[in-house]
Amino acid sequence: MNFQLDGLHRPVIVVGGGQAGLSMSRCLTEAGVGHLVLERERAGHEWRARRWDSFCLVTPNWQCRLPGFPYRGEDPEGFMVRDEIVAYLQEYVRSFDVPLAEGVEATRLRQLPGGGFRLTTTAGELTADHVVLATGPYQVPLTPRLAERLPDDVVQLHSSAYRNPAQLPEGEVLVVGTGQSGCQIAEDLHLAGRRVHLAVGSAPRVARRYRGRDVVAWLDDMGYYARGIEEFADADAVRFRANHYVTGRDGGHDLDLRAFARDGMQLYGRLTEVRRGELAFADDLRRNLDAADAVSEGIKDSVDQYIAAQGLDAPEEARYVPVWSPPEGPRTLDAARISAVVWSTGYGRDHRWIDVPVFDGKGYPTHRRGVTSCPGLFFLGLPWQHTWGSGRFCGVAADAEYLARRILAGERAADVRWISGTPVATYPRDEDWVAPRTVA
Prior knowledge:
Residues 411-440 have low confidence and may be disordered. The protein is of the alpha/beta class. Helix content is 23%, strand content 22%. The longest helix is centred in the last third of the chain and has 26 residues, at 285-310. It has 2 domains: 8-139 and 349-432, FAD/NAD(P)-binding domain; 142-347, 3-Layer(bba) Sandwich (FAD/NAD(P)-binding domain), CATH 3.50.50. Strand 11 (172-176), helix 4 (180-191) and strand 12 (196-199) form a beta-alpha-beta unit. Keywords: Oxidoreductase. InterPro entries: Auxin_biosynth/cation_transpt (IPR050982), CHP04046_FMN-dependent (IPR024000), FAD/NAD-bd_sf (IPR036188). This is Putative flavoprotein involved in K+ transport.
């Protein structure tokens, strides 16, 4: 679509048309606040373009509850696959009058001297009183530099570009990384009959079901997903912690790497070096597997305690028994054995276009519940922005509603102090905020 936005002004500009940006739009629409949503591609683009063919949610469908649009399908306990997720978002866009400008990229954001912001886009320059940055945390696929040392005939791609086993040349495949993407892609290849080598990191795992229910349901009842980040003593560590690996594939099941190894998959520790055609791995496979199992069993302990405390009638269930143990010592792999590598090594942030001083020394936006030290500038959709569900289908609604209230209230200026060159803001208590009846 050809949009001409030059000279346009809106009370609020939302950058990003994924579930976070659309949720923000729904809240602003219901509040009668004039706004515009800018999307570089199409609404829900990340789900279309950066997910493999067999991708599905790892949380049950009943947790899909965007503002005013809870899951209404016939399988609340199931797990939507990629195309169903895209259809869910498309239906959400059709459910209300989203002022959406697709195919428009924001290239620079500046604060105006008298207040408000100027956005430079591929469709012209526009201004706004408030800006909500809903572009998410996954802008730049990360691949380690040691990838450059692999032989030229080895096909390499990031997990964001992986689609299916047939995409890769025949032969053995190395998957590096065991977050949710790495484990699920390794299983996808394994089920297709490919010989898989998996470099195992320190991500934790969780059981799919325990004592008669999906573990997500237990944790939801226990209030885990409603805990705010400020309740954790190690908030910074929690915010950047890897997600637990599990899958919703074929109705949902555990991802047990030990079972993969028992059935022929080759497991290694972290990939540390590529030299003269040989890949070297750290001697941490046993430790990583044990730690992942310990997290899963610890969650079961919490569920047991909750069941006992509430006096609930839930079936007993035997605990997990490891089905495979790794050999002692580090391992190596001849690069000549593999035809392809899938790098499941995460993403980096790209906020270079945001010319406003709201970032810490590591480039992470400083905020409290998405409210920055710059009056009128907000973030939405960040992992653990406030709770575990922030940025996900289950929790983004609460974050969007909170920011809408702040915008409605006129965004009282925060008390900003500068410490070591970084803006640090203090805010009024939430209960002191009273939203006006109308919006100018």
